[in-house]
Amino acid sequence: MRLTLLTACLFGFVCPKSIDRNVLVRLNNPPHISIINGIPAQAGDFPFMASLLFPFTTGYRLCGGTLIASSYILTAGHCVDGLPTNTGNGYVFINSLNITGGGPGSLVRRVSSYVAHQQFFVNTTHVVITTSRPVVTTIKTTTKRLAAHLRAFSTYSNESAIITGWGKTSSGSVSQTLQKANVTVYDNSVCSEQWGNTFDGSTQLCAAQLNTAICLGDSGGPIFVNGNVQIGVVSFVSDSGCDDPTHVPVFTRVSAYLGWIAATMASNPPPASGK
C-alpha cells in the first residue's frame, strides 16, 4: 500500500511579522520524518524552493513546492485536495531555509489561485499555483538560477539526484530548516517490480538511497538532477516505512506534464496587483 505525504498545520510555527503579526501555525499531525538522513541546506543552495501553507478546516496545510516562473509554483495534487481554487489566504515562502520564511533575500507571497491537472488524481498529478505578485524581479539573482528548470528528456535511470524538504529528521526531532540528501533514480523496471500496477514509468519515477529517502511532510517537493533541473514532484511512499527498500518513494515525472504546465501558465496570468 502507499501513503500520501501530507501534513496539516496549526498554532505553533510563527509566521513572519510581515504577513500577520498574530498568525501562529503548528503541525497538527507532524511528519514522522522528512528527509531521512539528510543534511541542512545552505543559504543559496535552493533559492527556488518554496514552503506552502494553505488554510484548511482546522488550521493550515503544509507542503513543499518550486518556483518555476516569476508568478508560478509547482506542487502536488494532494496538497490542494479539498481546497477552493481561489484560496487567497494561502502563503508561499520562497528563498528561505526556514519553513515559515525569513532570512536574507527571502520572500512571502499570497496564493492567488491554483489549477490542478484535468486528469486530477490525488497522488499522481501536478498543480500550478499563481502567486499574488511576481517573484523573480524582486530577488537579486538571475531567473536562470532562481527558477527551477523543468526538463526530463530521459528516464534519468541510475543517475544521481537531490531531494529537498522540511520536517522531522531521522533523529525524530522536528527541523524547521530545509534538508537535502543525495539519492539515485531507479530504473523503471525496478520501480515496476516493487510497486506493480501502482507504478507507471511514463508518468512516474522512483528514487532513494540506502537509508535515505523523502517522507511525510515532503509533499509537493522536488527531485533535481544537475543542480536545478527538476525531473519530478514528491508523490507517495510505502506505508511500511519511507525508507522501505522493497518499495522506494515515488515521484510524478515532470516530463509527462510539461505541455500542460506551459499551457496552464499561459492561460492563467497573475493578478495585476496583490499582497
UniProtKB/TrEMBL annotation:
Family, similarity comment: Belongs to the peptidase S1 family.
Coiled coil regions in record: none
SUPFAM superfamilies, per database record: Trypsin-like serine proteases
Pfam families on file: Trypsin
InterPro entries given in the database record: Peptidase_S1, Peptidase_S1_PA, Peptidase_S1_PA_chymotrypsin, Peptidase_S1A, Trypsin_dom, TRYPSIN_HIS, TRYPSIN_SER
Signal peptide bounds: 1-16
GO process terms (BP): innate immune response; proteolysis
Protein name: Peptidase S1 domain-containing protein
Molecular function via GO: serine-type endopeptidase activity
Keyword Protease: yes
Gene3D superfamilies cross-referenced by the UniProt entry: Trypsin-like serine proteases
Record-annotated membrane-spanning stretches: none
Keywords: Disulfide bond, Hydrolase, Protease, Serine protease, Signal
The Peptidase S1 domain, residue ranges: 35-266
GO cellular component: extracellular space
